[in-house]
Design goal:
Number of strands: 0
CATH class of the largest domain: Mainly Alpha
Number of domains: 2
CATH architecture of the largest domain: Orthogonal Bundle
Largest sheet: none
Structural class: mainly alpha
Radius of gyration: 30 Å
CATH topology of the largest domain: MetI-like fold
Order of helices and strands: HHHHHHHHHHH
Shape: globular
Number of helices: 11
Distance between the termini: 63 Å
Length: 300
């Protein structure tokens, strides 16, 4: 056989010929998997539209739920229950908005919550990391965390007022304490729940403690931290209202207490609805941050 002569291709079998005819010569796809399936209109595009459809469905369900709740409220008010009707509450809200009372109360309460919540979260995250990473610090700090968690904020408010006075300091302190206790426990739980296999694999690859902490522990604990922040946010609002009921000259809690003295139910409802709306908006902001920061997680 002359090696310089070009060799002929071996004849293709019948099965090979059928497979070549069925396969797309450009993308290597079969007719069941067209080349444009991923780019638009195919299975992956359909899967990409599913989350959008689910979000749209949830928004519709939320709107229906709100309308049903308002309708039930209206029926109860019209049935003789001691409740103001929705139009009465809307009218009172318009009055409080027009004279600037509601804006001042919202500003005062929101400022207290944001400061106390930010300080509590900023302190809780490093403390939770240290408790979860070092057994010695866990043994020293954990008893105090559990001790203060069993004490309701209402029991601490009078002591804070006596020690710190009646200005903004005691209010911010009790909000700080409520947010701190909720977030520190979640952060600690996130650190101790990190898969040891990931840590051991990082050590085998030569990573030091600082690298492991920054690249493994912190990302794995982020979902727990954000859940703790959401719980701490609810505790912060509840504590704020309690603090303003005892010692405040302005704020949503103060406005509710003042309205209760005069049996002003529409004003009470305006304060309650304002707190609920503000808390819901802040919670949704944290939920959006959670989705952005934990996009690497598998979701169902």
């Amino acid at each position: 056989m002359d090696p310089t002569r070009p060799q002929k291709e071996p004849p293709m079998s019948v099965l090979d010929q059928q497979g070549a005819e069925e396969r797309d010569p450009v993308a290597g796809k079969t007719p069941d998997e067209p080349a444009g399936a991923d780019a638009g209109g195919g299975p992956k595009a359909v899967r990409g539209r599913e989350p959008a459809r689910r979000r749209g469905l949830f928004l519709v369900l939320n709107a229906v739920s709100v309308l049903l709740g308002i309708g039930l409220w209206w029926v109860l008010a019209a049935s003789g229950f001691t409740l103001p009707t929705p139009p009465q509450v809307v009218s009172r809200a318009g009055t409080l908005i027009s004279n600037g009372t509601l804006a001042g109360d919202v500003r005062a309460s929101l400022t207290r919550v944001l400061i106390g919540f930010a300080l509590g979260t900023a302190a809780a995250v490093p403390v939770g990391f240290l408790m979860g990473w070092y057994d010695i610090l866990r043994g020293l700090i954990e008893p105090w965390i559990q001790f203060f968690r069993t004490i309701p904020p209402l029991a601490i408010i009078p002591l804070a007022v006596v020690i710190m006075g009646i200005d903004e300091t005691p209010k911010i302190f009790v909000i700080f304490l409520a947010a701190f206790l909720a977030c520190v426990v979640a952060t600690y739980q996130g650190v101790v729940s990190v898969d040891r296999t990931l840590i051991n694999a990082a050590r085998v690859l030569g990573a030091g403690d600082l690298t492991i902490f920054a690249r493994v522990v912190v990302p794995a604990s982020t979902p727990f931290i954000l859940v703790g922040m959401r719980v701490g946010l609810g505790s912060a609002w509840a504590t704020l209202v309690a603090a303003e009921l005892i010692a405040a000259q302005k704020g949503l809690g103060y406005r509710i207490q003042n309205a209760q003295l005069y049996y002003d139910l529409p004003t009470i409802f305006v304060g309650l609805i304002s707190i609920g709306i503000l808390g819901l908006l802040m919670d949704r902001a944290l939920l959006l941050a959670e989705r952005r920061l934990t996009g690497w997680q598998e979701r169902r």
